Amino acid sequence: xxxxxxxxxxxxxxxxxxxxxxxxxxxxxxxxxxxxxxxxxxxxxxxxxxxxxxxxxxxxxxxxxxxxxxxxxxxxxxxxxxxxxxxxxxxxxxxxxxxxxxxxxxxxxxxxxxxxxxxxxxxxxxxxxxxxxxxxxxxxxxxxxxxxxxxxxxxxxxxxxxxxxxxxxxxxxxxxxxxxxxxxxxxxxxxxxxxxxxxxxxxxxxxxxxxxxxxxxxxxxxxxxxxxxxxxxxxxxxxxxxxxxxxxxxxxxxxxxxxxxxxxxxxxxxxxxxxxxxxxxxxxxxxxxxxxxxxxxxxxxxxxxxxxxxxxxxxxxxxxxxxxxxxxxxxxxxxxxxxxxxxxxxxxxxxxxxxxxxxxxxxxxxxxxxxxxxxxxxxxxxxxxxxxxxxxxxxxxxxxxxxxxxxxxxxxxxxxxxxxxxxxxxxxxxxxxxxxxxxxxxxxxxxxxxxxxxxxxxxxxxxxxxxxxxxxxxxxxxxxxxxxxxxxxxxxxxxxxxxxxxxxxxxxxxxxxxxxxxxxxxxxxxxxxxxxxxxxxxxxxxxxxxxxxxxxxxxxxxxxxxxxxxxxxxxxxxxxxxxxxxxxxxxxxxxxxxxxxxxxxxxxxxxxxxxxxxxxxxxxxxxxxxxxxxxxxxxxxxxxxxxxxxxxxxxxxxxxxxxxxxxxxxxxxxxxxxxxxxxxxxxxxxxxxxxxxxxxxxxxxxxxxxxxxxxxxxxxxxxxxxxxxxxxxxxxxxxxxxxxxxxxxxxxxxxxxxxx
Length: 756
What we know:
alpha/beta
């Protein structure tokens, strides 16, 4: 079986003799309108048309009942197996009835050269003679490395026939059948519909065998270019026709099939509840054909979560505050168990970025902390937990997004550190993860001049801009694969982010990324265009076949490793097991333990504990959002039902200072909630918080600054006499902090970032 080098999604037809066979490229395969009486063959015809092997006569006409000639039959096989040779001059056997002017001269010569078909002793090929069933068996067994199968195949009219052996091979594998009278009728002519079906059966049989034996090189050889590059795309599917995509609708079906997709990423818009999500992922895989899809999600825990009703872990910085690798492993394992039960195989986590810059607007509490050793230790433990549960960890964002002051969703950051610093800090956890065989790494849309200082002209403003890691061959192939020895999958960060989309244009970026070493393009802005860009780049030689094949082989190997080809469970079985896994008592216990052990005293009068609450206190809860304040109030009243507390809510914000000062002036105790995330810490509205702290200090009130986000308050606020950090505004985090204020637990967390 020869490697397929070029494939067309369709063929532009031209009527030649008795049959049209196209010679070019079109946007989509033909839809035939004359298959009404050949429904039995429609699937095979459509399949071969999509592969670019068969074509119609134009205007949707296929003529399924017309007889296929010897010339047409070998042309089908040549277009399927040796389409690259059609672009070159041909030499070899000549036949007296196939002059160089014959419309199928080139195809017949290629077929003869490659042993697909031969002529007759008198020097003719008989190109226009109808092909018989016997010849069909002979042609196809020559073209494909088939061996005798296990099915009984005894025909009364084939024992002494010249094609007895190929007929037996085809029949015993179930690829061709006989008639009810136990005859094969080897000399009967074959129609166009029959020949397309026979070819489709053989190709599918060979693909199935390749999958069964995990012969990925063989499977790739049977994949079209469209299928190969489709494996390298992982778009999002948030909406179709203005509605959230929560079921397999017609739009999603077309997306999967037209682009031969290899994966999808799901977001909260795709999720209603766990039953719907499990049904959705099951139905998606039913649409995938013989190669299943990778289904992925961002379930970091904490602020980045997607699963309603699932275990809402307190987040990575909360784990960093515990410093406990055992808890990190448990967090990874329970997350993986829940995702696997829901039909998801890839989690874009953990974050291995070291948040050494307080002004980082996008990482912050998503990181384990600012210490490279801590991030490495907890990151490896989380990866281990995920992988033990059968879910792939996709660590991010290589080579490191922690020391930036720009959000790459909005623009392109540049990290100007020298190589020594990158080795000591940013690269440290990634190097360790690679040493421990991590299987997927996500790239960062960040420029690292110490590794690659190439600049190109920005499409946004015409300025010269540096190449980000995602598009850099020096970073991905040179550093990651070469120097660090990484063997796993490289996935890009989202291509919808402005760091890529604004400066380079998506089509150019997709081509650059794959050439640089990316295996999977995540969230192309226009997946149709991205797919066609890659098909064109392979067909015109801009991207080498070997580059695509290497990526696709890695993808297929990983899909097999994570059991995607083993589709044994029914939907009913999947749904039955959900209640015992999603948000289970055991998982909730881990969630609570992490949250409680993470609570950290960031300031206190005696250096040990924050200000306590007392019986009958009038407590004012000050927060930036009403919803957040109400959550704290509810948790406080539930946990302190024996203290007879009275509560009031006041909102901090522009134009509300006098009102808030009046409220806290009447309080016995104030919970001042601070939430700084997704903005630059130094530009946060600290002055309002300082005014409130000064007022409370002046009146010697009991209070606690309740840090719900990035725990950098002590850099920007002075004279805070009582403060706690809980590393997230989710209920597990805030509940643990409330318990500490009530004396129901002792804060034991350690601040995992520097605030000096």
